[in-house]
Amino acid sequence: MPETSFGTYDDDSLALDLRWWAAANYLTVAQIYLQDNVLVREPLAAEHIKPRLLGHWGTSPGLSMIYAVLNRIIRESDTDWLYVTGPGHGGPSLVAASWLEGTYSEIYPRVGDDAAGIRRLCRQFSSPGGVPSHVSVQTPGSIHEGGELGYALIHAGGAAMDHPDLFVAGVVGDGESETGPLSASWRLPYFLNPRRDGAVVPIVHLNGYKIAGPTVLGRTSDDDVAAYLRSQGWDPVFVEGDDPKQVFTELYAALAKAQTDVLAMRAVARSAEALDGASPSQRYTWPAIVLRTPKGWTGPHEVDGVQVEGTNLSHQVPLSGVVDNPDHLRILESWLESYRPDDLFDESGRLVPDLAALSPVGDKRMSATAYANGGRLRRDLPIPAELSTYEIGLGDGRGTVSFENTKSTGSLMRDVYAADRRPDGGGTFRLFCPDETASNRLQDVFEVTDRCFMGPAAETDQKLGPDGRVMEVLSEHLCQGWLEGYLLSGRHGLFATYEAFAMVSASMAIQHVKWLQHAQTLRWRDSVSSLNILLTSTCWRNDHNGFSHQGPGLIDCLIPLAPDVVRVWLPPDANTALSIADHCLKSKDHVNLIVVDKQKHLQYLTLAEADDHCAAGAGAWDWASNLDDSGVPDIVMASAGDVPTQEALAAAELLRHFTPDLRVKFVNVVDLMALLPENDHPHGFTDTQFDDLFTKDKHVVFAFHGYPRAVHQLVHGRSDPGRFHVRGFNEQGTTTTPFDMVVLNRMSRYDLAKEALRRSARRTAGWTELVQYCDRRLAEHEIYIREHLADMPDVAAWTWGSGVVD
């Protein structure tokens, strides 16, 4: 463990840091305003100004100040820090910092370290073909998208987990502090273990204003802010003022003390006595800093007689009429010259040597740290090579054995946990789940690890403790956000939750897709482990919870997004779920959505068959089809998902019994993206593959897990897409029986069989009898469930080949 030794923050050191800060502020303003004459070495003219002024100034000076002081902390103590920027629209300040450190020019050689490079730096900012105005995937040193307001401290927490020597500066904006996810993220001390984890030092950057008015926390007293943070497990230090020398000095002291306190905490937690046994159940108090500085600090104090600095008017572009208003142009020129650029950059435009020397060396630079480019740290998971250990047998035949479809995946993760464990209790894999690990039948992981909890222990607690590596907290935002930070800093994991509640964090999943989409275009961004989202307690089997828990909407959110990133899997049984989990845990740069129910379901495929089926994406099940030697069907019965597959199989059996001359082809889809054309998704079927599977002209009755519109969207452009008749979740639900859920949504075996008859290419013997049978059974069902409060026994106990009730 590195020892920390801080120097004296004397006048010379302070003067240097103030000049570095001036350089960062100068480049920030220049990026927002200038397209030419970027070092103002001639009088500023209208043609030097960008035609579109975009960007955010207000928060940037504070972010640059924090960066400057952290650089001194890093140089003096030789520690590793990661900078997570909550006020994401401070993008130009973080881009400026990475340029000043030399990282930007190393990664993007076109943006050199001289005047020509500064010109390109400015012209690209918030411009076509350039970089966004917020901190983004293109920003060196970033793992957090600036548009993700509310998640900075969550991502910082995920990055710190299992990186025992890392410090993460989680800068929290006061606008961000008004969000629900940020409020939940203050619970981090209950889950961060200094024995094996790094440290998060929150820096609450309060400048008082959002874009249009004041913020709640900005108008809250220090006493109340301190009381709140202390109640959550933090020990806050306040740094406040508008005198740069005073604020720099106090911020340096606060950060030095924070690091020293963390190192002392680590020494106790990692002592020989502590390592001799399990960590004590202890709630540690972690350092935090509250930084109050003026919004738009060092910018124009007043414009057109109205105060700008220290108000919301400095949030974006303080001077918006620079091109047309000569007075504004002169104010901008004075503003830029106030930083004395000739003392910061030499004749060639390079940062002067005494300021360049302030940057840490190599990977110690926050813009170059491997912790922000997690693919550099990623190592393959120790996944068992032989999955047959977890295979579920088919017993007396296909569709006769019932088993919880997620349970074998839990067994796989148990063995991953066991093989992945470090001597200090850390590792590279974690499962994140909102209080539902056992409920989702993943409880086998508790054979080798506990739920992580750093709070007080009670005698009645089970599988709970500080060394646990299952992260259970009743917040989808925390679970998914922690995992995202964990992945982007080089590790592996899975987020499991109830299907309907995944919509709580749907926007996070969308943003992560966008991050990965752009990361794939950046050669310097190494591949990271995929974000794996397992949805269980699905809409079809949340019959006990009711309508509020019935919603498959995340599928619809993800399928329109980047095809090189998104994968949607609908395994019909446990072996396919296991095969998919194995594949997804090994994959990189994807968002894998796996939707499979936790309850007992019939089992259809051996593990070898499941592997082949999942690799293909979809396939015909000959054993469930009823074709003659011609191989030409009258109707295609298709399914995607566990409950839809059971109902489609039961419908196929009805057709075989009543209309044996009707030729039925049964198709199961496990990789939803296979339905897309090959040019629209890497897993998409060619037209030939698609037509071989579904035929060119026969009608397809499709039992689908989610909203029917999703399938219609995916098959658009295929041969005669109007022949696809999709039955799925149709926003009909309540607290009822499992079978009544499919009846309410007209996806029952009886509805599917009738639809197949309606759409088939020819009418055969038994047609009328089957229609009458289906109508009678639906009527009987309606009466039976209200009298007995349960499904009809033959429906509940149905297995493949069990026959038809007369």
UniProtKB/TrEMBL annotation:
EC number annotated for this UniProt entry: 4.1.2.-
Residues in Xylulose 5-phosphate/Fructose 6-phosphate phosphoketolase N-terminal domain copies: 19-376
Metal-binding among keywords: no
MF terms (GO), sorted A to Z: aldehyde-lyase activity; magnesium ion binding
Xylulose 5-phosphate/Fructose 6-phosphate phosphoketolase C-terminal domain sequence ranges: 598-800
Keyword Lyase set for record: yes
Co-factor(s): thiamine diphosphate
Keyword annotations of the record: Lyase, Thiamine pyrophosphate
Pfam short name (any one): XFP_N
Enzyme class: lyase
InterPro entries linked to this entry: THDP-binding (IPR029061), Transketo_C/PFOR_II (IPR009014), Xul5P/Fru6P_PKetolase (IPR005593), Xul5P/Fru6P_PKetolase_C (IPR018969), Xul5P/Fru6P_PKetolase_CS (IPR019790), Xul5P/Fru6P_PKetolase_N (IPR018970), Xul5P/Fru6P_PKetolase_ThDP_BS (IPR019789)
GO biological process per UniProt: carbohydrate metabolic process
Family, similarity comment: Belongs to the XFP family.
Protein's name according to its UniProt entry: Putative phosphoketolase
Organism: Nostocoides jenkinsii Ben 74
